[in-house]
Amino acid sequence: MRRLCLISLTGLLFMISCNSARKPSAENFTNAINRYLAKHGEVCTSIGRQFPIDIPASAQQAQYGFGPQLVALQHSGLVSETDTTAVVHGMLDALRGSAPPQPVRRYQLTAEGQKYFRQVPGTFEQTGGFCYGQKVVDSILKWGDPVTMSDHSQTEVTYTYKIVNLATWVARPDIQQAFPDIGATVNGVSKTSQKVGLQLTNIGWQVSGS
Fold first, then answer.
1. Burial class (CB in 10 A: 0-12, 13-18, 19+), 49
2. 80 versus 13: which is more confidently predicted?
3. Residue 137: partners with Cβ closer than 8 Å, 6 or more residues away
4. Rounded to whole angstroms, how far apart are CA atoms 141 and 159?
C-alpha cells in the first residue's frame, strides 16, 4: 500500500511538472528559445573564402572590401601576413586563361584564429567565417495570446538577447568598422528585439520547426 502511494505521488508530481511546462510564461518561453539557440545561436561573420588568402599588390591599398577586413583580422591576431608571389585566379580565367604569378600579400590563420574559424552558412553553400559568441535570451518582452492551429497551440514571442562567451577581439573599433554585421550584433545586445514562433508540444513549448 505504501509503495502504491509512492508511485501515485510520483505520477502526480510528473503531471504537475508537465502542466507547468505547458503554461505560457516568460520562464517557459526563455527555456524553449534557449534550447533552440544552443543549436542555432552561435554568432558568426562570413569571410566567404578559405585560407590561405592571397591579395594582389594592386588591391592592397583599397579602402573598402576584403582587404581592410583581413588587415583588421591581422591586427587582432587572428591571421598573419607574408609577402610572396602567386597565381591569383579570377572569374574570367576560363575565357582568357590564368594570369602569371604576381606579388601578393598572403594571409593565413594563426593558432588564435583557428579557435574561431568555422564553416558557416553562405549565400549558396557553406563558407568560411569567424564565430565569436553564443546568443541566449536576455529578457522576454511580450507574447501573443496562444491560438490553436491544426492540433497544437502556438504563439509569437518577442525577446532581447545577450551574448555569452564573447570573444574580446570583437570590441576592437577596426573590427566593427570592417565588419558592420559584428558591430550591429554586439551593439544590439539587450536592445534589439527579435521575434520567434513557438508551439506547444506534449512536453512543453518549443521553437516552431526546430
1. middle
2. 80
3. 30, 33, 34, 37, 159, 160, 161, 162
4. 5
**Given CA atoms 94, 95, 100, 103 in this order, what sign does their dihedral have?**
negative
| Percent with pLDDT over 70 in the chain | 82
199 has a pLDDT exceeding 90: yes
Answer whether residue 89 shows pLDDT above 50. Answer: yes
Mean pLDDT of the chain: 86
Full-model pTM: 0.80
Distance of alpha carbon 168 from the chain centroid:
16
Q: What is the DSSP string of the chain?
A: -HHHHHHHHHHHHHHHHHHHHTS--HHHHHHHHHHHHHHH-EEEEE--S-SSEEEEGGGTT-SSSHHHHHHHHHHTTSEEEEEEEEPPP-TTHHHH-PPPPEEEEEEEE-HHHHTTEEEEE-SSSEEEEEEEEEEEEEEEEEEPPPEEETTEEEEEEEEEEEEES--GGGG-HHHHHH-HHHHHHHHTTTT-EEEEEEEEETTEEEETT-
